[in-house]
Write a structure and sequence with these properties.
0% helix; four-stranded antiparallel sheet; 114 residues; 11 strands; mainly beta; globular; seven-stranded mixed sheet
Length: 114
Amino acid sequence: QVQLVESGGGLVQAGGSLRLSCTVSGSSFSFRFNTMGWYRQAPGKQRELVATITTGGAPNYADSVKGRFTISRDNAKNGVYLQMNSLKPEDTAVYYCGMSASYWGQGTQVTVSS
């Protein structure tokens, strides 16, 4: 059974930074062969893509976070990370780690105060 565990959320002032981490475990998968992504869901809104990173390390970002967020992965640690800089109140949401858009973590809350 695949498990994804996020950490690193919290409360930060606008303009601040946070780094989210996600660790994947399980006996029936190979982390390095899966595209990983970060998604977020704000209250009353649908879940949306924030960033993805391919098996080869190529990133892709939503327009709303380009230039502010950086996604990375460490295949040796089965980890994927999201460095978030210049945070805005509209970044407030529950952030989810996803593997091939099929497996999900429980989410971590990010709150940006103005």
